[in-house]
Give the backbone structure.
Amino acid sequence: MQFLVYVLIYPLLWFISILPFPVFYFVSDCICFFMYRIIGYRKKTVRKNLELALPHLSHSERQIIEKKFYSHLCDLFLEMIKTLSISESEMDKRFVIRNLDVIKEAEAKGKSIALLTSHYASYEWSISINKHLAYDSFAIYKKIANPHFDKLVKKIRAKFGAQLITTKETIPTIEENYKNNKLGIYGFASDQSPKISRAFHWGNFFGESTPLQTGAEMLAKKFDMCMVFMHIRKVKRGFYEVEFEWLSEDPKTVPDFKITELFMKKVENQILEAPEFYLWTHKRWKHKR
């Protein structure tokens, strides 16, 4: 049954991926109309999150952000599909790196790198940075239940050289590479809520007490990695820019959880620049202390 679903849907995905960009984004607008106006996909969660994070805005101001968010969400989903057929030159025009020297400086230190980012703007197209790096790249993701779609997602995200590893594979992979003196850059999207059983530290996110994902910091300290923040901006529809910022060159010298808190503060500031480009459908504040 899972294979049948895959066989039926894959041709549609491929057809969408080869559409010219004006038609491609028209399709996104159509999907957005049904998702937002007809289905109301996770609308209650989005509104609750916006109220918690942006209480200083009026109801009408948050509604504007809400509508823009759903448009961006549909763009984001389709842009992941677009990766199936997009050329390298087209990607270079649409996902621009402004200061690769920060990564090169980190590589020059002869240590692996923990690259932290958030579910903001085009975290999907961030896989394209891998072709600019000297290290092997590993992107951490959550495995999809349908093995055929899981294989497809791996194929899409590995197009520019990234190796996908599941959350369960992360520690064994880093540990093995460390023992073999194999340097790598590991991508962590560490802004969302961890399982409550793994909530080792609580901090503030938009003034709300919330458990923070501390795995990246713990692994960076254990395996002597540099830590860098990847700040992605949406310049206009279909076009993004990336800037890298240091979190810590030597995490072992920093008190526990301080780097995680610094990362979350950077995420918060990033969101405030343009809130509509954050993934508001996730129940970020579902756990209470």
Q: What stands out?
A: The beta strands are 95-97, 113-117, 136-141, 163-166, 184-189, 202-205, 208-211, 226-236, 239-248.
